[in-house]
């Protein structure tokens, strides 16, 4: 398999037909110079953008009217890249194409009521009305537009003999369509257009046909090229489309799209798919397509270091000016980040997890983010369970809030328990997917959710340290269980739920004097059940005592984790093994995002340290070295653990623990 480069730029070029002199200031030497300033070794260049125009001489589509007719700007960019050894896959839009929507309204996706489908798009808007951000009509790939996409694909595949790859954007915009082509197709397949399930089944079949047709054309001409289908092709909840791409590009702008803790679980998931994967961020202060918006170079370097921590290659989004020159400030910023990546990337890929703790993940992105946030802030290095056959690898498996166990996993988890495996069940998890009863082996019985709006957590003092021992507010109420076990924490119920008929003070109702008859946390052998949805509460409210409570429950089950560090809460730790290189790799990461308006901003990177480290290893360590500094550290090794101290670091520090086989 050809490995993806680690330092990529995704170059947007969605350019209005009302702008002239497109590409008139493109200069091969300037283009190459900026890529070299940016330490870039791959850049996705533009074939066709969202306005619907192509940037090469086309017989299938429409060349941009503001560009010299017959000019091949896309080809010039590709040639410039190849001259200096930079990879240059080609971008083609799918779901958004304004010109095609205008000229072929029959290609626009229709809602069930027959109206046009769009994103932030008013189909009745007048020309002088303000247009919102990311405002486009949605195009249907199941009818005539699909044939157009096939012809466009064949055209670029024939035109560019050394085409590195294709990037298709906005591919999975809806789950169904009621345009004339789709209604006719549903009837021909014996499906009922009036039934939503039938409409979804039809559209899924048609999407697969579209992807398979594009893949067949591409690989016929370029069998060793890369292809990626974006906007759904790399989502955990859409596994049916993962087969179609040669690699995964995990699109994520942490400044606006869910923050800096969204990536780890996605990276862990796609890291187990057997394909290369990269994380996509942007040079923009806010979001895609922002002209004149810049992250600081330090913030961009942090994002790149964070992606490396989770084993992802990197793609930084940019948008080229209509005149065709790359912005020097942008590539100086990218170069600041990528020069660091270049120094340490050899330590960051083809690694194996060392953690003995894993999390079950589902299709709910918010729930995945919640448990990730709780684990990361607790400095618990972890993996995820990707298949039932994986469960035996771990000492502890954590089931996040409300995680329902499929029949496939039920057998695996019960067997895991028989072999001594440990479980931590959070708020309402561990139940069968089709019944409110436990899918695992336990003496506990599930009795449903408390009827109160909130309640209070009451920890037992001799079980926990560094806690408040008065009742602690839980912002959602407990899931009730009964049965035998060691009670670790109790519940205090409120006098009543807050309503207009019954309320007390400004907010939540105070607690009763006596404890409830059901526990907040109970140990049943190697299983601990936590009655509250602790991960969701922590994501939404950020209470330090909820995190400390959770962390100590984990410690009760796994007192000797794979790695422990002394860092502030916003610090991140990852400890992996690079077996081919005979070394372990420790990542220490620290950045503290600040919410300013609707943008999450990283600006201050203080010195952190000293950081004391204890890491579990299976080999005799020969050297411990800070990279890329090359500074060796004193260490001791005893009983399978290595101990050392990183005196100080800022933002990110990689430490290599080398061993001899």
Tags for this entry?
eight-stranded parallel sheet; 3 domains; single chain; nine-stranded mixed sheet; Rossmann fold; 13 helices; Immunoglobulin-like; globular; 25% helix; alpha/beta; TIM Barrel; 661 residues
Total of helices: 13
Proportion of strand residues: 15-25%
Tell me the Rg in angstroms: 27 Å
* Count of discrete domains: 3
List the helices and strands and how they pair.
Elements lengths: L6 E6 L15 H10 L4 E7 L24 H11 L6 E4 L4 H6 L14 E2 L16 E2 L6 H16 L5 E5 L10 H9 L7 H26 L4 E4 L18 E4 L11 H9 L5 E6 L14 H13 L3 E7 L8 H17 L7 E2 L3 E4 L4 H13 L5 E3 L10 E4 L4 E2 L1 H12 L3 E5 L4 E2 L12 E5 L5 E5 L12 E3 L4 E4 L3 E7 L26 E6 L2 E4 L3 H8 L2 H14 L5 E3 L5 E8 L4 E8 L3 E3 L2 E3 L5 E2 L2 E6 L4 E7 L3 E2 L2 E4 L2 E6 L2 E2 L1 E8 L2
Parallel strand pairs: 1-2, 1-10, 2-3, 3-6, 6-7, 8-9, 9-10, 12-13, 12-14, 14-16, 15-17, 16-24
Antiparallel strand pairs: 4-5, 11-26, 18-21, 19-20, 19-22, 22-23, 23-24, 25-31, 26-27, 27-37, 28-29, 30-36, 31-35, 32-33, 32-37, 34-35
Helix pairs in contact: 1-2, 1-9, 4-6, 5-6, 8-9, 10-12, 12-13
